[in-house]
Amino acid sequence: MEFGITFKGFVEPDRARYLVRAAEYAGFSHCWFYDSHILWRECYPAIAMCMEHTRDMHFGPLVTNPDVRDWSVAGSLFASLNKQSNGRLEIAVGRGDSSRRVMGKKPAPLSRVTEFVEKMKAMVRGEEVTYPECPEPVKFPWAVGHEMPAWIGAYGPLALKAAGEAADGVVLQIAEPSLCKWFTDQCLDAGKAAGRDMSKFRSMAAAPAYFGPMDKAIEATKWFPAMVGNHVADIVEKYGSESGLVPKSLTSYIEKRRGYDYSKHGQSDNPYLDFITPDIVESFCVLGEPEQHIAKIRELEAAGVTQFNIYLDSGEEEEIIARYGREVIPAFAGA
């Protein structure tokens, strides 16, 4: 099991440097940053900065999308960061939920997401690439052949299929083991049907973690199911709540959802939290005492999850990192 952390763009530089050093020392292998350039500061200067203060930790956007940067700019950015970090950049890609919608624009179609993944990996390898908006082929003569892992963020059946067919892993913004198994199995089945070797396919459960009494932990993390519900609402709109294509356990909790404020995306002061119940928060997050964290992560591992990624958005970041390093990560050493 790998362990990761995720920062939003409002983390101050001094604090980011401090926390990322602490996380690497504690045994975390990955650090991710939200990539939503209007809601938060541009994430790639922070990634470059943190790379200089770590030795082995991998970094990346969680998630970027195909439609906020020209593809040659994105490819050059990813290849440059890989070159200067000796291959420590990974990317996670989605359709562009907050970063597009906050501008009044629609997210990208999945076909564009998968093409972007393919072309970014090729550019970072140093291959010649063509893409729709560029009449001439693009090739970076300075790229040194890094093989950059790429993940796709997914919930719905078509996105899960795309992840299985085109990516190295899937990002699941949820830590409910049975749902993670349902999502991961769909990716694996799609990849195998496409003739891919899925033995090294990775599955990430990204969710908040919090220590302490359950009532306090639930209060600190109830913003998260609201963010998940925003994505689930899109799936229900596309497939219907009774289609059988999406588990009822995932769709039922949004029946009383009234809306979503993108200016408060992923924040505790989002005004649309009244439909969130304590059992949903406990189900979607990893909460309680260290033994409860270990038990739930073991369930996630059994469900096919290969990385648990903590959204550090709920306060007490130092304590969470330190206690994972002392009490949780060692339980998975060598696993």
In short:
With 335 residues, the protein is α/β, with parallel strands linked by helices.
Q: How many helical stretches?
A: 13
Number of strands: 12
Percent in helix: 40-55%
Strand content: 5-15%
Arithmetic mean pLDDT: 89
Give the topology string: H per helix, E per strand: EHEHEHEHHEEEHEHEEHHHHEHEH
Largest sheet: 8 strands, parallel
User: Which segments are poorly predicted (pLDDT under 50) over 5 or more consecutive residues?
Assistant: none
User: Strand order within the widest sheet?
Assistant: 3-2-1-12-9-8-7-4
Structural class computed from helices and strand pairing: alpha/beta
**Gyration radius, in Å:** 19 Å
Cα(first) to Cα(last) distance is 6 Å
Basic shape = globular
How would you describe what is shown here?
This protein is an alpha/beta fold and 335 residues long. Helix content is 44%, strand content 15%. It has helices at 13-26, 43-51, 71-85, 97-101, 110-125, 157-166, 177-193, 214-221, 223-239, 248-251, 278-284, 290-302, 317-328; strands at 2-7, 30-33, 58-61, 91-93, 129-131, 134-138, 150-153, 169-172, 202-207, 209-211, 286-288, 307-311. The strands form three sheets. Strands 3-2-1-12-9-8-7-4 form an eight-stranded parallel sheet. A two-stranded antiparallel sheet has the order 5-6. α5 (110-125) runs parallel beside α6 (157-166) and α7 (177-193) packs parallel to α12.
